[in-house]
Amino acid sequence: MALSLYVDTARWRAHQKTVTEQFPGLIPVCKGNGYGFGHERLSEEAARLGADVLAVGTTYEAAQIKDWFSGDLLVLTPFRRGEEPVPLPDRVIRSVSSVDGVHALVGARVVIECMSSMKRHGVHEEDLPRLHAAIEDVRLEGFALHLPLDRTDGTDAVDEVIAWMDRLRAARLPLHTMFVSHLRAAEQARLQQQFPQTRFRARIGTRLWLGDHEATEYRGSVLDVTRVAKGDRFGYRQQKAASEGWLVVVAGGTSHGVGLEAPKAMHGVMPRAKGVARAGLATVNRNLSPFVWDGKQRWFAEPPHMQVSILFVPSDAQEPKVGDELVAHLRHTTTQFDRIVER
User: What pairing do the DSSP bridges indicate for beta strands 245-251 and 308-314?
Assistant: First the structure.
C-alpha cells in the first residue's frame, strides 16, 4: 500500500508537445525533486522531446543527471568563487552573475545572467564595459534574464527584455542567444520578430511538466480503519475524539512531504481571511489534510506521522475500507511518491 502518483501519460505528453510548439528552442528544466517525477524520468522525457539542453538547479544535480541525459546541461545556480568543485563534463554550461565569476571560469562554457526586476542575482549595467575583457577567456553561450511571475506595477516583460538587449548592444556585447524565463509565448514571439538575429530560448519547468493539472493525481492507500466514539482517546498524544466516526490510516506522511506547505503570497481580502481562519483552527489542533474522501477534504486526526497520516472521518460520511485510495491534493515540488502508475 503506497502513496502513488497516477499519470495519464498520453495526456501529459500531449501537453508537453503543445508547450514545445509554442516555445521554439525551449530548454526543459529539471531541478529539485524533478517537479515530483524525479530526475531520471524527466531526463528521459527531455530526450524524448529532442531537447539539446536540459537545465538543472545545481552542480550536484548536474553530476547526477549527466548519466541520464546525453545533451548539454545548463546549471541555473550562478557560479561563486570558493564553491565546492564538482567533477563535470565539458558539456555542462555554468550560469554566472558577476564579472568576477566570468574571470574565474577560464575556458568554461558560460551563460551570463543579467539583473532583472526580480533583483535576485545578475550583472548590472555598469558591469557591462568590464565584460569585454572577461568574455575573451570563456566560451560565451549567451545572456539570460530570469523575470518575475507577476508584474503588479503594470510594467511589461517584453519592455524589460528589450531594455537589456539595448544595453548589451550599446556595450557591443554579442547577442546571438538570450535565455529567458517566465515569458508568455506571444511575448517571446514579439521579441524574436524584433530581434531576428538573436535566438531566444525559454527555460521552462513548471509550465512544461505541471501545466495540465488533470494529467496527474496523487492517491494514498487506506491501511487501517478504526471506529471511535465521542470521547475515545487515540494517537501519540491521546487526544479525545470530538464525535463519532472513523480513524483512517492512509499512506503518505512527512517523509512524502505530506503536511509541508510553502508560504503563499496572498492578494485580496478573501484569501487573507481564509489564511487567518486556517491559522486560528491550527491553534486548536484543527488542520485540514490534503486527502479527500466522500467528496470532502478531511481533517488530520493528529499531525502526520513519518510515512502515514491519521484522518478523522465523521460517521455521516461513507465508511472507508482498507485498500481504498484517497485522492491527495499535494504540491508536486515538495512530494516524494512511493510508486508511479501510468494510465
Answer: antiparallel
